[in-house]
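Hi R.,

Here's the chain you asked about this morning:
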Amino acid sequence: MRRKSAIFLIVLSGNVPGTAGAQNPPPETPQVPPFRVESGIVQVPVSVTGKRGTQVADLQADDFDVLVDGVHRQITLDRFDTGVAPISLVVAIQAAGISAPAIAKIRRIGGMIQPLVIGSRGEAAVLAFDNEVKWLQDFTPDSIAIDDAITNVKPGESMQACMFDAIVEAANRMKRRAGRKILLLISETRDRGSKTKFDDALEAVAREGIEVFAAHYSAYTTTWIAKPEDVPPAGPNLIRIFTEVGRLATVNAVQALTTATGGSDFPFAKERTLENAIQKFGAEVHSQYILSFPQHADADASGQPGLHRIEVSIRDRADLRVRFRQSYWAN
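And the predicted structure, written out as tokens:
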């Protein structure tokens, strides 16, 4: 049974018995950590893990070496809980007919998004894509609305899954969003029929500074292990599914997107592994270091329009693995 929670705020005003004519003092405004919103500031979320994949949480600004187009840059450092802007998250779910068994599992993770990923100050939007892109929920902080949108995803009849078209639509919807921008793809690793090319989708997320994460599945595997009730009688044609396996693209589009933007890719086949993927996704988002530097610098051409390469390393710590967005777009 899906659990929903609601928060009720009761505001009392007027006189209190025994204190005639007195007014209740106004409630104190909660202190929210400030965050920088400066024009021309580039923010680079960075994940740092040890040999066993555990997050490394004790680094300082001086531990990072940041190069932009090969030139060293001075940075400032924040963590999620020390002044970083709220998260704007788009959850993009593949809803092609071939995805029916996976969607039965995906519907059950909607309640995890607000508490584990966006937090109390963030907002999430939800879209589904098959041969077209459908927005199911615009940006909202409401956990119940997010859960309902994901619960109501339905597989279409089309075998297409226009991932690149969905990525561009998500990037366009985030253009006016402040703070951290994150896209979560829950899909196969390849595009099925987009009008948009991969390079255009990558440019769209680079222009908006969007970090791409993914929970990916094989339609072949999820069909074999699906429960009978998870595959509707009018569901996908299994022979057609199996023949599609032989035509999978040799390039893993999801892995390319997550690597280029500093995100992670979590495979899943069962509901439990999907839940684990969302937990790991949320844990990583909340443990990242946020490195910031001015877009324009006198010493180099990093403020010139176009794409600029970013390189991040940890000084004297070759044992650590570092993931970061590999470029930013200057207008």
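The chain has two domains: 41-80+288-330, 87-286.

Let me know if you need anything else.
M.
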